[in-house]
Design brief:
The protein is α/β, with parallel strands linked by helices. Helix content is 40%, strand content 25%. It has a domain of 66 residues. Strands 6-7-8-3-9-10 form a 6-stranded mixed beta sheet, with helices on both faces. Strands 2-1-4-5 form a 4-stranded antiparallel beta sheet, with helices on one face. Helix 3 runs parallel beside helix 7. The protein is globular.
Length: 236
């Protein structure tokens, strides 16, 4: 479904990503982990078209994404739930969700998708007319994920969905993301600091450090790697 090949990205002369290669097959749950500043968010922004690439290739469903406007990538079925939630604070919860339904697939499936969002996150139905900026951090994250689902995506990219949330709220978010994958069949690409939980949900994981992919494999393989065990899982 998604193929990232030898991707390099530079900011102001500084290399943020170097020869990054990643593959996401349809129906998979793939996680990218790594320390702060490793380039994980840059990778997502480049896939969604916010940041230009210096070299390499990104294809989605066989189509070359380079040269395609970010809005066009959304129409292809790529939804990006950004780091820090970034809800439209002066719009209501419902208006935020409606903004996500901009692509044609989202418009066609709007009523069904809205029902599904409310099933996953019932609080969003209760808060439909409330301004998103007045919600708690966890509720804003639910809005952000719901907004991503509103476009009826084929690929849902989630950047640090547990960031800044209380552990119990983060657990709920992880449970809902797992439901979206298992029950709705949405392909997931996740960036997450809660490494153990993220990898355990995944079919395949990648470790990104200082802009380079240093390791990848299924959860069981990564769990056996000493670097992952010590640096990310706190195991000896």
């Amino acid at each position: 479904m998604l193929e990232v090949t030898n991707l390099s990205v530079s900011y102001g002369g500084l290399r943020a990503l170097t020869d990054v290669t990643l593959s996401v097959k349809e129906g998979q749950f793939v996680t990218v982990v790594g320390p702060n500043g490793a380039g994980k968010t840059t990778l997502f922004k480049t896939i969604s078209g916010i940041v230009p690439a210096a070299s390499g290739q990104i294809t989605f469903m066989g189509e070359n994404l380079f040269g395609l406007h970010p809005a066009r990538r959304a129409h292809l079925g790529i939804a990006h739930v950004p780091e820090g939630r970034q809800v439209f604070k002066t719009l209501t919860v419902l208006e935020n969700l409606e903004m996500g339904a901009y692509p044609q697939a989202g418009q066609r499936a709007w009523h069904h998708t809205l029902d599904r969002i409310h099933t996953l996150f019932p609080i969003l139905a209760e808060r439909a007319t409330q301004l998103a900026g007045t919600l708690s951090g966890g509720e804003q994250q639910m809005v952000a994920i719901g907004r991503g689902l509103a476009c009826a995506p084929r690929l849902l990219m989630l950047d640090e969905p547990s960031m800044g949330l209380a552990p119990a709220v983060a657990d709920t978010i992880f449970e809902r993301v797992s439901q979206i994958h298992k029950e709705d069949g949405v392909t997931i690409l996740l960036v997450e600091q809660r490494v153990a939980e993220a990898l355990e949900l995944s079919d395949h994981g990648y470790v990104l450090e200082t802009g380079r992919m240093v390791l990848d494999g299924p959860y069981e393989t990564l769990l056996q790697d000493d670097r992952v065990r010590k640096s990310y899982l706190g195991l000896s």
